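A note from the maintainers: we've had questions about how concatenated examples are separated. There is no special marker in the raw files; a new sequence line simply starts the next protein. For clarity in this README we add a label.
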Amino acid sequence: MPTDDIRLTALLDELSRLDTEAVTAERGDLDLLDTRELVRRMNAEDARVPEAVAARGAEIAAAVDGITERFRRGGRLIYLGAGTAGRIGVLDASECPPTFGTDPSMVVGLIAGGETAIRAAVENAEDDQEAAAAALRGLRLTADDTVVGISASGRTPYVVGGLEFAHQAGALTVAIASNAGSAIGALADIAIEVVTGPEFISGSTRLKSGTAQKLVVNMLTTLSMIRLGKTHRGVMVDLRATNEKLHARSLRTVVQLAGVDTAGAAAALAAASGSVKLALLMLATGAPAEEAASTLERVGGVLREAIAALSGTSALSDASATSGTSGIS
């Protein structure tokens, strides 16, 4: 048997064992159903995803802690994926700077096939096992970085090659897959295998698998940013006002958390050069901008700790004493 035929036979056998590729008899009548019933059935399948994600809570928490630790050392979070999985990583990375005020280099999304693949399929890109390693080499990957490989099947060669290289470089490696016992899960330090079962349309892993991936990456960045002090009382305080909506949100945040009017919030933001967190600290303590900024830097950017340091109180006691009240604390 020719080598190509042997390889194809092995791949067909491998795919036949994946839950994400399974064909179920219960959905054999989809083309006969009316639209309202299709909506009901698809929504019922989607509703299973959050439960599957919750089942991997321990692994997600371990990944968040590992990412946060490396962020504090100046490391980066780098996503790897092909197709839908790659686009989800790129999306999450691109939303961190405006949401959390991070440098664009802090969270990076790499997709098989490069920038073109964000909008259109690039033929055979996911099969290039060397491409991700080359991209990571170009980023000068270090042991302070975290590499998260995303693959619904858990076997994508591009992701496998990237995780192998990342492991050799000493980086923390995390795998997000939709099948148990995945190849990338076996390679990674932390395996987040969210088993979502057969897709509504067999093999269309942009559906439940893609939804699960989005939920997990949301947690990885959002929760690590909370750990880094980029939120306060459940509100973003490190956002960048890069457009009119975000400028309005900055004003609204200061009004809500500091208990001042819009004019007071605008004046505080101007004095803080647009920094929501700095404006809030100045309003809470009366400290001038320079002192407030140096205190924030000293406590690692955690607003609650900076307020406590300038007020001579305990951050923990402030949190318990003011929970549910207005006014910055």
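[label: protein 2]
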Amino acid sequence: MSIYIIAGICLYIASYAFYVTFSHGLGHKAEYLQLRRFIPCAILAVLPMYLVNESLLSPQYLLSFLVGVSWITAYPLFYYLTYHKISSDFGFHLDTVFGLYIIGWLISLKLLVQAFNIFPTITLSLISIMEYLLLALPLFQASYYLLYGTCVSTGAVTMIFETYTNEVIEYFKSMPLAVRIGTP
């Protein structure tokens, strides 16, 4: 039991420290509110593993943890790197809350499938697909930041949605072959 408590406390401290570090211009009221808000989220992230006495370091749950951590860190980090010098205040507590909940939800789904043995291969495959789809957005944000040196903005998303298929094909055709293949 103590390992689960330590894991929950570490997850809580790490997520709160990340939130405070990569937020800008937070008032004490906002800091204290999140100080309380992140406690149940961190508990719910480790509670499923505790209830079934499953190892926290089990490889089958590491992707779920990675997905949650990527949601906690991706947008707040890239927004901070882009705007910390010009924006007076910002904080992304919901990214942290959602990331912690994702960890608990995905692990809970896997544990439920294992406990009730309902089409385990198909169901776990669907959960894995869902994990990779959830991981796609933070990876897109990281790729966007690495390419353009700025976080994803409303204008960028609008531009992406207004791009026609033929424009995308033409863009890739204009790139050198080595870039299209993904090799230097």
